[in-house]
Design a protein that fits this description.
This protein has 224 residues and is α/β, with parallel strands linked by helices. Helices cover 33% and strands 15% of the residues. Helix 6 links the parallel strand 7 and strand 8. Bound molecules: adenosine-5'-triphosphate (ATP).
């Protein structure tokens, strides 16, 4: 467990993971080293708030993340959002993690986001409260440059005010800073994988073999 006996910042990685792929996995793996994290808590969404209900059952998405991260001691899986079987919002999720029986108020938490997700933050439920709960770490993503001139004005202002270019600064407070980090640029998306599978084309090498075997066994994503 990455959180046991380690008070370094902990990465929090939420997503639909519909399905999980190597873009997600490299982002998480590289974030640990780039930001000196104790590890990553993966949190697959129950019903994602801002997109259509995935056609694959939430437990299937969860199972695929479990398969993908099973042998990585830096990663743990948080099943609570899927088990709650309701719409997932990040602020209440972080409030749950801030309770004393989880991490409490002082542990630095770092919410990992791809650059596309970061740019869309102002659509999130209670999004300004994120800064009271976690730091934000924005990963570069192909096709989604971080361009302050293109960001919503409030978000660009937050970036200017909160940005820290020293990853060590994330360990100095529980929440409220923004950092960015470069990851190996993999132009992989779950949308692309779903389209390949629906078209009966190969998705091999875009996601772990264990995940591919699972979705083939259960005939997931095979219909348009
Ligand atoms: P979809 O294509 O269905 O929108 P996705 O591939 O973007 O899915 P999500 O589960 O929506 O995957 O993403 C979870 C998080 O991972 C988001 O913060 C997203 O920006 C980030 N992410 C996903 N794929 C990549 C990638 N290839 N490189 C960097 N970040 C990524």
């Amino acid at each position: 467990m990455p959180e046991a006996q380690d008070d370094r910042p902990l990465g929090i990685y939420g997503g639909t993971f519909d399905p999980v792929h190597y873009g997600h996995l490299r982002l998480a793996e590289e974030a640990v080293d780039a930001l000196d994290l104790a590890g990553i808590r993966w949190i697959p969404a129950g019903q994602p708030a801002l997109r259509e209900t995935p056609r694959v059952a939430a437990w299937q998405r969860l199972t695929m993340v479990r398969l993908a991260i099973a042998d990585n001691p830096r990663f743990v899986l948080d099943t609570a959002e899927v088990e709650a079987a309701r719409t997932s919002y990040t602020v209440p999720t972080l409030e749950r993690l801030r309770q004393v029986d989880h991490y409490g108020p002082r542990r630095p938490l770092v919410l990992l986001l791809g650059a596309d997700a970061f740019a869309a933050l102002p659509a999130w439920h209670r999004w300004p409260s994120l800064y009271d709960l976690a730091h934000l770490a924005v990963a570069h993503r192909p096709g989604h440059p971080i361009d302050l001139g293109q960001l919503p004005a409030a978000l660009a202002a937050d970036w200017r005010q909160r940005f820290c270019d020293r990853p060590a600064a994330l360990a100095e407070s529980p929440c409220g800073r923004i950092a960015s980090f470069a990851t190996t640029q993999l132009a992989i998306s779950a949308t692309q994988i779903r389209a390949l599978l629906a078209g009966r084309r190969s998705a091999r090498y875009l996601l772990p073999d264990e995940v591919l075997a699972h979705l083939q066994q259960h005939r997931l994503y095979q219909e348009n």
